[in-house]
Write a sequence for this structure.
């Protein structure tokens, strides 16, 4: 996967920002003060199946998670260091279609954005 394309896509959404979480070395994407994605390489010492993988964690609809994990068991994992019922971690070195990954990025953003107060939503879309 082309990380620069994913990064540009995530940042193209209204109000989206990113910041490096220095302690962990993760790039975290935010909207309205809430995380909607993070990109990182899991430590080689992390538990399997995460160890050493280049991952993108995204908020996801629980029903869609089940479908994704069934169809792509090696590439779509329960959310690393997050609630695996509502987050997925995608192996960026797996052979998933770019369209699928970008669609999941959109879903994550939309799920988080929809939970923001209406006032904040209006502010972000008016910018």
């Amino acid at each position: 996967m082309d990380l620069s394309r994913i990064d540009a896509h995530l940042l193209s959404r209204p109000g989206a920002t990113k910041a490096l979480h220095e302690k962990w070395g993760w790039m975290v994407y935010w909207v309205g003060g809430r995380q909607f994605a993070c990109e990182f390489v899991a430590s080689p010492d992390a538990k399997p199946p995460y160890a050493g993988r280049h991952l993108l964690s995204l908020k996801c609809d629980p029903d869609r998670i089940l479908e994704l994990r069934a169809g792509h068991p090696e590439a779509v994992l329960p959310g690393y260091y997050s609630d695996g019922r509502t987050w997925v971690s995608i192996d960026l070195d797996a052979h998933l279609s770019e369209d699928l990954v970008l669609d999941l990025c959109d879903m994550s953003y939309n799920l988080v954005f929809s939970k923001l107060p209406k006032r904040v939503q209006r502010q972000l879309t008016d910018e």
About this structure: The mean pLDDT is 95. Residues 3-120 form a domain with the Aspartate Aminotransferase, domain 1 fold (CATH 3.90.1150.30). The beta strands are 17-21, 26-31, 34-41, 54-59, 76-78, 87-91. The two ends are 30 Å apart (CA to CA).
